[in-house]
Write a structure and sequence with these properties.
With about 375 residues, the chain is an alpha/beta fold. The protein has helices spanning about 1-25, 25-30, 35-60, 65-90, 165, 185-195, 235-250, 275-280, 285-290, 300-305, 320-330, 345-355; strands spanning about 90, 95, 100-105, 110-115, 125-130, 140-145, 145-150, 175-180, 200-205, 205-215, 225-230, 255-265, 290-295, 310-315, 335-340, 365-370. It is found in: Membrane.
Length: about 375
Amino acid sequence: MEQSVSYRWGLAGFIGFAFLLLQSLGPLRRAFYDTFLTLHRIGIVVAISGAYFHMAKHALPQLPWAYLFVTLLALEPAMRILRIAYYNFAWKQRTWTRVTLEALPGEATRLTFLLPRSWNVKPGSHTYVYLPRIAPLSLHPFSIAWHNSTGYARLDSEKLPLSVEDLKMHNGPSTISCIVRARTGMTRSLYNRASKAKADHVELWGAIEGPYGGKHSLGSYGSVVLFAAGAGITHQLSFVRHLLAGYNHNTSATRKFVLVWCIPTIESVEWIYPWLEELAAMPDYNDIVQVQLYVSRSTPETAESLPLPAESQVFSQRCDPQKIVDDQILVQVGAMAVTVCGPGGFNDSVRAAVRRRVGLRSIDFFEEAFSS
């Protein structure tokens, strides 16, 4: 009888692990993220419980390893909770992170987090967002589109450090911004909450955890081409700011970079318009930055109605990645990096365009998967 119960637990554990393996497939995870989180947690409980009781019933010598595994598994969320508390709560001021929601054209929401502590965000980073009044039981990952931190402000100043005091980082508030397209589940609830507000924004309390990613700064490339589609601009925008600052401070090899953004309507530019103005105000912006907007559902007259910074081109047509890559190869400076962030089909087209030319010049390709 003991053996029968043990084998049943073993079968339950096997089914749990097999379910986790199938559920972890990227397309399913991105399409149904809220459902994925709930089922993933249930699968973990079933898998670990099945494996533990299977070994316990037989008193197997591997049982201590099960205790170690469960301990490490419990430490991971505990460490995340401590990290969330540290960055989102200031003990002296007794303040918690505040979140501002703004409804934008194209069913998008701008999230602005005011953190009480400094954050050192690398270009291309993402964070996990916790909004208890929207999704009380889950954290959702979003790319960091823009950030400002008083604690790290000296790193962006034009003055070079001349003393140890100049190198000290003073802890201070930070602002983290994300752009979220409304799909289903949490993102839809987020947009509905912001769009139905009587004022132009909604204030909530929340938290963020991270940042993660940001492995490639692209500062070693002479030429950089940044492709983005839809909300994929949130991943690419931080690279523009980082590379432009590096050019001004002579800490980056980049001498030319192009931002290509494909959007359905020109109104989508309002998502990032304040940040485009900040970029245009930076020194040497017109010398090395070129912005190309491809608007698929607008007439030329509509596309020109929104004032844009200098060196910005608006095309009322679909993007042709092959032509853009070929044009940039002709004026390439040093090694070239091509990055893309957008839906799967768009990413595939950019990858194919780079692959056809990768043998001609020194070109590296970087992809960031995105679901909208």
